[in-house]
Amino acid sequence: MEEYTVNYYPVAADDIKDIYSYLLENDVGEDIAKKQINIILDTLETLTIFPERYARVDTAKWKNAGMHKMPIRSYIAFYTVDKLNHIVNVVRVFVHGRNIDYLLESNQILVSEAI
Predict the structure, then answer these.
(1) How far apart are CA 27 and CA 53, in angstroms?
(2) Quick one: CA dihedral 109, 98, 66, 89, positive or negative?
(3) At 42, is the pLDDT very low, low, confident or very high (cuts 50, 70, 90)?
(4) What is the domain-level CATH number for residue 92?
(5) Predicted local distance difference test score (pLDDT) of residue 95
(6) Do 110 and 63 form a contact (C-beta atoms < 8 A)?
(7) Half-sphere exposure of 22 (CA within 13 A, CB side)
(8) Per-residue exposure over 24-50, b if at least 16 CB sit within 10 Å of its own CB, e if not
(9) Most confident among 29-43, 53-67, 101-115 (mean pLDDT)
(10) How far apart are CA 84 and CA 55, in angstroms?
């Protein structure tokens, strides 16, 4: 089985930086903030093997586009799988508490190329 490469859209990288900043601003401490970010990144890197194991997004528009969702503790990551090139594109990473349905329907989850 060939492994996939995990790429991050610029906005997904910004999401992760924003999570880190939020944690620091809310006095969780730098060590805990770094640990949370490492958990997110390490979990996303597991997508190198069988990335389609997580559910597709339920809305017709995103399900047809092949958007998957991956829970990571109190966060949720959205990604697509390019089977032909063996690439996983991490599109966004949100805190579970955000209005995900609104973001999905308003195209705020749609972004340009991965880095």
Answers:
(1) 35
(2) positive
(3) very high
(4) 3.30.2310.20
(5) 86
(6) no
(7) 10
(8) eeeeeeeeebeebeeebeeebeebeee
(9) 29-43
(10) 20
Domain count, the chain: 1
In this structure, how many other beta carbons lie within 10 angstroms of the beta carbon of residue 75?
20
Determine the pLDDT at residue 39: 97
Strand ranges (DSSP E) for 1-115?
5-8, 68-72, 75-82, 87-95
Residue-range definition of the domain harbouring residue 55:
5-105
Q: What is the pTM of this model?
A: 0.85
Alpha carbon distance 104, 77 (integer Å): 12
Dump pLDDT digits (tens) for 49-100: 999 999 998 876 676 778 999 999 999 999 999 999 999 999 999 887 766 6
Give a yes or no: residue 88 inside a domain.
Answer: yes
How much is the pLDDT for 112?
A: 45
Which residue(s) pair with 69 in the sheet?
Answer: 78
In a domain, 115, yes or no: no
Q: Nearest-CA neighbor of 114 among 20, 44, 21, 24?
A: 44
